[in-house]
Amino acid sequence: MSTPLGWRPPRPLQNLSARQADLLVVVLVLLAVELPLAFGIGGVSPWWGYPVAALTALPLLLRRQAPMLTMLAVSVADLVYIGLDLPDVWSIYGPLVGVYTVARHSEPLIRRVTMALALLAVVVHNMLDPMQFQEFTFLITCTVTAYLLGWAVRTNAAYTLALEERTHRLEQEQQLEAERATSAERARIARDMHDILSHAVALIVVQAESGPLVVRNDPARAEASFDAIATAGRDAMAQLRRLLGMVPRDTAEVGRAPQPTMDDVPRMIETVRATGLRVEHTVDGTPSPLPPDTELAVYRLIQEALTNTVRHARAGRAEVRLSWSRSELAVRVLDDGIGADLTEQQGRAGRGLVGIRERVGACGGMVRIGPRDGGGFAVTAEIPLAHKDFPVNRVERRS
């Protein structure tokens, strides 16, 4: 049942259907007009006075289906009761409920017309049965109050409905946002798994291919190759275990496994060196703390660049150079390999390069990928240390 201003009826009444509530209203109005007649209040009524009084209540059964007609019916019945000079009892209850019903369920124009007709009915009532000024004023006040009460309940119901709709929209938006966040997290995990597996598999393949050549001529180097394969496999398994450990099974497990950081770069370079590629690692300037996503982006950039060098470049030497300044971190991964055409290079390692651009661009950085002058290949990036004003996702390609 709709109620004004947050008021709630007793619990048994809250469970009534609309039809049951209307029936209860009719019964109460009938008791209010028939009991005074039965007890002789205001005088003795003839038998036909009871059905006339009942007509001021019975039409209320249809008050929700036809509010205006119901109000007119009970008002006319009230005026007929008064005009027949029946015992002086208060038969205005039905019209008051009718006024409330129109104000509660009808459109603005109908409500205004109803209010005017209700006040006119009070005037006609006074003409048929002259009242004292206090009684006339009280009846006008009751009519206006019934109208305002219906309007208040209507306004409260509309406000409640608007809040419910807004809550429903917010729930839908939160669900969509959660789905988008889940998709983004899955994409990030997929990129990480690609980086980890492509790096480890490249190292393993290179060592496995060179194994048969050196096992007979250089057992020590062959042993080193097998150690490199084992190290690369164990490192990949550890990283995958950490990555999959971040997939939440329950809230207690979220965030328990850290991602690689700048501190893990030297160990990753040592793994690459075990393939036979000479990798020089230099750091210029004073390192500064980086956000976790930036550290991961730098790690993955170096990992992907070295993986492509081992897999495609047929290089003998590579260089990883980190240059720190007050405003940015410059990352350069250079090799002396064959310097393949950029289109061919992207075709063979396209997803990895796309991942590099996405990661560095998300940190506000700029990536350059292409052959070096004089031979070899270069992957460079400049990542601002305060990147809030840095253009996002800028990529330059060198030919």
Helicity range: 55-70%
Helix/strand-derived class? Answer: alpha/beta
How big is the Rg? 43 Å
Distance between the termini: 75 Å
Global mean pLDDT = 75
Total beta-strand segments: 6
Main β-sheet: number of strands, strand sense, barrel status? 6 strands, mixed
Sequence of secondary-structure elements: HHHHHHHHHEHEEHEEE
| Beta fraction | 5-15%
Described by the principal axes of the CA atoms, the overall outline is: rod-shaped
Order of strands across the biggest sheet? 1-2-3-5-4-6
Low-confidence stretches: 1-6, 250-256, 340-350, 387-399
Characterization of this structure:
With about 400 residues, this protein is an alpha/beta fold. About 60% of the residues lie in helices and about 10% in strands. It contains eleven helices and six strands. A six-stranded mixed sheet has the order 1-2-3-5-4-6, with helices on one face. Helix 4 (about 65-85) runs parallel beside helix 6 and helix 6 (about 110-130) packs antiparallel against helix 7. The chain is rod-shaped, with a radius of gyration of 43 Å.
Q: How are the secondary structure elements laid out?
A:
Layout: H1 11-14, H2 18-38, H3 49-54, H4 67-83, H5 93-105, H6 108-128, H7 133-214, H8 219-245, H9 265-273, E1 278-284, H10 292-313, E2 317-324, E3 328-335, H11 342-362, E4 366-371, E5 377-384, E6 394-397
Parallel strand pairs: 1-2, 4-6
Antiparallel strand pairs: 2-3, 3-5, 4-5
Helix pairs in contact: 4-5, 4-6, 5-6, 5-7, 6-7, 7-8, 7-10, 9-10, 10-11
